[in-house]
Amino acid sequence: MVEPLQLQTAAWALTTALELSLFVQFLRRKLGRIYPFFFAYLLSIILQSAGSAALYGHPDLDQLTFWKIAWGMQSVVVTMRALTLVELNRRVLSPYVGIWALARRLLLGVAAAVIAYDLLLSKGQWQWLAMNGVRGLELAMAAVIVTMLLFARYYRIPVSPLQRALAVGLCLYSTFYVINYSLLEKVLRQYAVLWNFLGLFAFIASLLVWIGAVRRYSAVEEATVPQTIPAEVYGMISSEVNARLILLNRQLIQFLHLENRSQ
Amino acid sequence: MSLPVILLVLFAMLLVVLLAWALRPPEREPRPSLDVFEALRQSRHSSRMSHILQSLQPQDTEYLRSAGQPALIQTVRRQRRIIALNYLQQLQEEFELLLEISRVLAVMSPDVIAMEEMERWKLSLAFAANCAFLKWKLRLGLQPFSGFTLLSNMATSFARRLEAATTRIAEATVRSAEPPGSF
Fold it and tell me: Among the ranges A74-78, B131-135, B177-181, which has the highest mean pLDDT value?
């Protein structure tokens, strides 16, 4: 029977191989210029893998130093992921100036609310504050991605397959991290190895989604130039459309009330 | 595990569900922009509501009841139910068309009014819920017919107000269509 630790080592090796493969494909497609933060994020996770391997090669390190270095590397990766997310949102929504202005406020509000809620769970203990802070950031990133995709869907804003894949990969990893960390923290501490392995598995899934999208990437999908109208025209027609929607809705409500009365 | 952490995990799970929902292909392909602006000038189903409702007056079924024609009453009621469902369908389509127009405008505008967008979003939720509720009531065969009488009386006033609002939209559209007629 294969030991869980052997499985985990194999998963680590596979993760590093996939990270390198994605990095090379990203370079070959010259996507680093279009998504510089994602490129930097890739670089950071590769360096984190190398750093982790080096760290585990020094078993004489005391636990606190180990913890500080590991979380230091993790915080760099999380920061890069957050920047990637900002980049992704900007690329999807910023060509639509009005929508972007609205979405920016909403996305910031969502992120701030989620992080604040998560930090409240730390009860002022600095160790939990750091770890819960990362969890809060991960959850906020997932919430922002979903909000952005819902926004894009509502306004029928085109999201290219690569952007979609980046969003899915980031969101899946973040949500799994939150679930994993929350359950591990309170309930399943004895299954830590298994849960770490599942965490890696979620990241492998994200990497595969990204690799698939980068392989299928074509430069045409990025070239969408939206048409614009003067803001006054929007303001004028928008309020009238709203008036009509209100009337239609009121009509329906009256219909509903009358029907209720007739029962 | 404490309640706040459970809520956090549930929220994360909800996000995965929402992600899957957001990635579904749209039910309908978006109409080309030109069609949308053309649609603003077209006549609307809701303006014909009074005529439709006029045909749904309960006098006929009352007469049939007094004449002892139960089978015919059922047939008439079934037909009326279909008419009512069609009317609701048309009302919904008109609502969705207006929403689509507003979305196209918001996407093209360099400045979006958050309150109006929020108002539309709330309206669309309320409308969808009301419409679904009413449709199910009709499908389940509950008796909506006496309600139609009163509604019929109100329809004219609603239609007039809708017509006025639509005329203003059309005027604004015509004004805006010059010179950028390439919408």
Answer: A74-78
Closest of A142, A106, A139, A183 to residue B18, by C-alpha: A142
- The Cα of A237 is separated from the nearest Cα of chain B by a number of Å equal to 6
Q: Using CB atoms, pick whichever of A101, A118, A243 lies closest to residue B8.
A: A118
Distance of CA A82 to the CA centre of its chain: 8
pLDDT greater than 60 at residue A176: yes
pLDDT at position A224 over 80: no
pTM (2 decimals)?
A: 0.74
**What residues of chain B lie within 8 A of the CB of A235, using their CB?**
109, 111, 113
User: Which residues in B lie closer than 8 A to residue A135 (C-beta atoms)?
Assistant: 8
H or E stretch at B120: helix B114-139
% residues pLDDT > 90 (chain A): 27
In CATH, the number for domain A4-227 is 1.20.1070
CB B102 within 8 A of CB A154: no
- Candidates A259, A261, A263, partner chain B, best to mutate (most B CBs within 10 A): A259
Q: Looking at the complex, does the CB of residue B106 fall below 8 Å from at least one CB of chain A? A: yes
Taken as a whole, chain B contains a residue count of 183
